[in-house]
Design brief:
Blueprint (H helix, E strand, L loop, with lengths): L3 H5 L9 H18 L6 H12 L5 H17 L7 H16 L6 H17 L3 H8 L10 H4 L1 H13 L5 H20 L4 H21 L15 H12 L30 H30 L5 H28 L27 H4 L4 H14 L9 H15 L3 E3 L10 H4 L1 E3 H30 L1
Helix pairs in contact: 2-3, 2-4, 3-4, 4-5, 5-6, 6-7, 6-9, 7-9, 9-10, 9-11, 10-11, 13-14, 13-19, 14-19, 16-19
Length: 458
Amino acid sequence: MTNLQEIAHSDDYGQFELKDLYQATQMLLQEFQKTKTEPEKLKDILDHLKKRLEGQAAYPLAILLESSQLGIRHQLQKEWNSPMKQRQLFLFESLFFQFRGKVPPTIWNQICLNYAEVLIYVGRSMDGLHVLEQMVEHENEDPSYQRKEAERGWGLLFYSTFLTGKEEKADALHKARELLSEGAEGITDTNGRALYADRLKLAQKMLDEIGPVDVTANYKPNFFEGREKEYRDWCAKQHLLLNHDNEVDPEGTMKLDTLRYRYKGQDKDRGVFLEAFMNSLIAEFTAHREKLYDALELDKSEPMRNEQLKTVYRESFTLFNKTAQFVNHYYKLDIKNQHAVMQRIWFEEEHPKNPLKPFIRDTKNSALKALYWLSKEIYGYERSESQNLAMIRSLQLRDQMERSFVQVITKQEEIAKTGDLRKHQMTQSELERLALSTTFKARNALMYLGFAVGMEKE
């Protein structure tokens, strides 16, 4: 029987079974991870797998292997914003968008698990936790799904590093420890259990460093009733509260928006301006969120529902740019208003083809980096060879709603076969999904911003 080494270094991959090729590729990736020297045949075998699996349900598995290669190559770079990291994130976003509901649960769960892991490592822990919620339980044993709860614990461990209060940090770490401990028990794979056992040790170490905490100090009462209670419960379920506890305990959290900004410094005029700016952002988002809730409560046959959802979707982008404006003022970037937008503020002379500005290039602030990476998902990767179709579609629809029109269709026969009208059509379900997802991203942008300035003030 041919061994994996012989398969990996063969000149004719077509003679081997896909399962053997997959294992041989994994072996080369492990060799690459260990030696930090990329095996000569790794690209060839990856290209063969992608070509051979094209059009099949298992095609994402080849892309997951390619993303692993990019992750290892990124580790060898000195910059945190390398082309390999951008390419890796692009690949995951594309898989997540294109293969939802189109592949077996076992493959979909691998996409979610690996994507969440990458998001967590670049600081986007809130987004990573959200991706894990998209995993689907399957009747057969699924190694990826078995890791879901433990991976949630890993995400919360990273999330805890954004929190500055002792009680807040302890709350998140206690939940992380619980999920890592209980989640690892359900993992049948020995290596998987060992991985999360090590992560559990880290959670315990971080808790020990915090020291004793008064557990009664963080009591979370809720006094809402009727429709207000339903609304706030919905906000917590959708992770739309501007509240650090929404990720830790969506059901038990106090259903309030607790995000606040208080300026520290000698310049009182600047402090008053920044506090007023943040308060305005928070007020605008909460009004925006309630508009979304009101729209979703309307009957789907009500024409006003679609128009309200369009408004919510379009206005989400103004929140992104106002968040960028706050960054401009807070970090004293002195960017002219028309250029102080989310896709431009990071770069010298506000041009995406230029190098990053020192405030982001040299920062140790993980929440600020998370905000940067979130902006890439919304507006595209300047160092990627191509862009995610979901991002292109999202911006195209936003522009059409701003400058032209978008027709919302509910029946198959309404779809235009050819012509310009087809470019201006979207389904009702797509509109609902985009309105909700962009509101979630706007919320996360504000939360990452709040965490970033909190870290700067420490």
